Amino acid sequence: MRVSMQNIYKAFGTNQVLTGVDFELLDGEVHALMGENGAGKSTMMNVLTGLHTRDQGTITIDGKERYFKNPKEAEENGITFIHQELNMWPDMTVLENLFIGKELRTPLGLLKTKEMKALAKKQFDRLAVSIPSEKEAGSCSVGEQQMIEIAKALMTDAKVIIMDEPTAALTEREIQKLFDVIVSLKKEGVSIVYISHRMEEIFTICDRITVMRDGKTVDTKAVPDTNFDEVVRKMVGRELTDRFPKRTSSPGETVLEVKGLTKKGAFHDVNFSVRSGEIVGFSGLMGAGRTEIMRALFGLDSFDSGEIWLKGKKVTINTPDQAVKAGLGFITEDRKDEGLILDFSIKENMVLPSLHSFAPKGLINEKSENDFVDMLIKRLTVKAESQEIAVSSLSGGNQQKVVIAKWIGIGPKVLILDEPTRGVDVGAKREIYQLMNELTDRGVAIIMVSSELPEVLGMSDRILVVHEGRISGELTKEEATQEKIMTLATGGQ
Q: Which of 170, 203, 236 is the last residue of a domain?
C-alpha cells in the first residue's frame, strides 16, 4: 500500500501543530518518522487514520484521494496505528483485549473461545512471547502490554502498521523479536511507519527517514545516505555534542540501604545501597522484577520481609506518602496511569507532591506557586503555551518532563527513575541526563531502571543486574559492557 500526504495543515485552537507537512510511504518499506517531542509526528499519523480531521492538504492511498472518518474505518481499510500510550482495558483478560469488537461467534451468538485462543497463541508464537490469554491485562507489565498491542495489529491483516515508540518498554531480546517480525512483514509487502527516538533502531531496521521539526517536514533520506549526527542536527536545528554528558560524580555517604527485600513470586533477598551523588543503574530483561522492587521500595506494593534504611536509620515505608515524607521520589514507567492526572493542568500536576510547601499557614501562596512552576517549565524546556493547559494536550515527551518536574519539586534525597527517557526525543534525553547530573551534584542519590543498555552504560556509576527477581551481579562503570550485562541478565556468570 502506497500512502502520500501532501501539504497537510492541522491546528488545535490557536496552536498550529502541522504547517504544510509532506510524507510518502512506499510498498513494503520501513519508514522512520523522527523529530523532537511536539514536532507533529503522532498528529500527522492521527490525521492519516481519521482521529483528527486535516485543515488543509491532500491524502492519497494507492493513487486515489482518501480520507477516513475514524481509526476504525482506517483499520478496516488496512491501516493500523499502535499508539505510544497503550490502549488496554485493564479489568479485561488478554484474550478479551485482543478481540474487543471483533469477537468470533457461532451462528447462535456464542463465543468461539477455543478458536480465539488458538489465533491469539499463533500471534504470540510469531512474536516469540508467552502471555496467558486468560491473564488480566492490568496485571501485565508495560512490555507485555506492548506485545499484546502488536499482536492485535497483526491480527487485523494490516497493509500499513504505524508503530509509535514500539520498543520503549521492551528489552533487547524483545526488540530483536520485534525486528524479526518487521522483517517478515516487509517480505509480505506490509509497510511500516516507525516512530522512534532510538537511533540505533532506526539505522538497524529502517529503509528511509523523514525528519520533522516544528510541524514541518525537514528532509527525507534513505538510511544509507545519512548518519546519526545529520539526523540529530535536522531534528533539533543545531549540533548536539556528546550523546551522554560527562559525569564527574564523587559519591558521598550511603543514603539508602536495602537489606533482604523479599516478596514471594516477585523478588528475593534483594540487597543494595546508593550513596549521595551517585547514579545506580538497574538493568535486566522484561519481567525480571526491577520495577516490582522499586514499587515496593516506594510503598506502592507490599513486601514480605526485608529492611529499608535511610541515612543510617531503619524506616517503615508502607505507603507512597510515607516514602515522600522520608525523602523518596518515584518517576514511574507508566506516566499516563500512575505519573500524571491527565485532566489536571501542568501547574496542578507539578505542585501536587509539594503542595504543603506553598501553604505554610493553610492558604496557598499563588505567586510562589506560579514562580516555582515557571522555573520548572523553563528548566526542563516543557513546550506549552501556559502552565494552565491540561497535561493531556502535551506530547508524550513533554508529559514525561512534567512527571520529572513534580518530583524534583519535593527536593528528594533519593530519586527512583523507572525508564526516565521512555518516548523522549534525543534532544530532550540529553536535557534529562544533564538534569540527573545536576541533581547528583547537589547530593541526590539516583536509582535508574532502564531497558536501554546505552543509557545504562552512559549514565550509571554502578550497574546492578536483576535476573528472575534476584540481583545476579554488580558492575562498575569501568568494567561494564553490553555483553557482560546481557550475560548476567540471562542467568550467566
A: 236
pLDDT at 167 over 90: no
pLDDT reported for residue 88: 83
CATH number at residue 186: 3.40.50.300
Query: C-alpha cell of 249?
Result: 560524580
301 and 366 together in one domain: yes
**Do 175 and 283 belong together in one domain?**
no
Mean pLDDT confidence for 172-187:
85
Mean pLDDT of the chain: 89
Assess contact for 23 and 217: CB atoms under 8 A.
Answer: yes
The domain of 422 spans 254-489
Rounded CA gap, 434 and 41, in Å?
25
- Spatial separation of the C-alpha atoms in residues 177 and 173, rounded to whole Å: 6
Nearest Cα residue to 289 out of 143, 444, 98: 143
Q: Is residue 62 part of a domain?
A: yes
| Residues whose CB falls within 8 Å of the CB of residue 210, separated by 6 or more in sequence, listed in order | 23, 31, 32, 33, 34, 217, 219, 220
Q: Does the residue 248 lie in any domain?
A: no
Per-residue pLDDT band at 221 (split at 50, 70, 90): very high
**What percentage of the chain reaches a pLDDT higher than 90?**
54
269 assigned to some structural domain: yes
Q: What does the pLDDT read at residue 101?
A: 85
Q: Are the C-beta atoms of 94 and 137 separated by less than 8 Å?
A: yes
Rounded-to-integer distance, Cα 272 and Cα 261, Å: 10
Q: Give the closest residue to 84 by CA, choosing from 170, 194, 179, 166.
A: 166
Q: Are strands 3-12 and 56-61 parallel, antiparallel or unpaired?
A: antiparallel
Q: How many domains does the chain have?
A: 2
Is residue 285 located within the same domain as residue 229? no
The answer to whether 120 touches 131, Cβ cutoff 8 Å, is no
Strand extents, DSSP E, 136-278: 160-164, 191-195, 208-213, 216-222, 254-263, 267-275
Locus of grid cell 492526572: 341
Pair (179, 321) in one structural domain: no
Q: Give tens-digit pLDDT for 129-142.
A: 889 999 999 888 77
pLDDT computed for residue 410 by the predictor: 82
Together in a domain, 288 and 225: no
Place of cell 526542563: 380
pLDDT tens readout for residues 5-52: 999 999 988 778 899 999 999 999 999 999 877 788 989 999 999 999
Q: Give the integer Cα–Cα distance in Å for 485 and 343.
A: 40
Query: Distance of CA 82 to CAs 46, 119, 153, Å?
Result: 11, 19, 7
Residue 479 Cα distances to 285, 353, 365, 449, 461, angstroms = 20, 38, 50, 19, 11
φ/ψ of 213, rounded to 5, equals -150, 130
User: Among the three residues 236, 269, 288, which one is the final residue of a domain in this structure?
Assistant: 236
| Whether the predicted pLDDT of 424 surpasses 80 | no
